[in-house]
Design brief:
alpha+beta, 4 helices
Length: 142
């Protein structure tokens, strides 16, 4: 992916993030994610019905990388089964950590494929993906 396209995807998802705003709805599970190293603090809500992710919402204060990564994550995971979502998340984590991954299933999330060159930004990109993974892993275990 070209550098300019990566920048455009990140900027678009930062300026116009998908599903920003939390709902007062008990059918969603909630999780708070926050970084120990910067301002990133995102509250997430996820709605899962019959093993399918129906919706993910978020709100909070975060940098451009964290906000855009969250928006892209939401686009990638809604409509997926818990197992499909976990596979996508694992591939995203592998990409960020410079391990082998399948870029075909990451869609726009591949715009972060060189973020490892900025180690202090890795956590920004991963923060909400790890938070959602925790919820999905617990769901899978039930």
């Amino acid at each position: 992916m070209e550098k300019e396209l990566k920048r455009a995807i990140i900027l678009e998802n930062y300026q116009n993030p998908k599903n920003r705003g939390l709902l007062n709805d008990n059918s969603y599970e909630s999780i708070n994610t926050n970084s120990k190293s910067c301002i990133d603090q995102i509250d997430l809500q996820i709605k899962i019905e019959k093993d399918i992710i129906k919706d993910i919402r978020f709100d909070g204060e975060a940098c451009a990388i964290c906000t855009s990564s969250t928006s892209i994550m939401i686009s990638n995971l809604i409509g997926k089964s818990v197992n499909e979502a976990l596979k996508i998340i694992d591939n995203f984590e592998n990409m960020i950590n410079e391990k082998e991954y399948d870029k075909e299933i990451l869609n726009e999330a591949v715009c972060y494929d060189d973020i490892s060159k900025q180690p202090n930004r890795k956590n920004c990109a991963l923060l909400t993906w790890v938070g959602i993974k925790d919820v999905l892993t617990k769901k899978k275990g039930k």
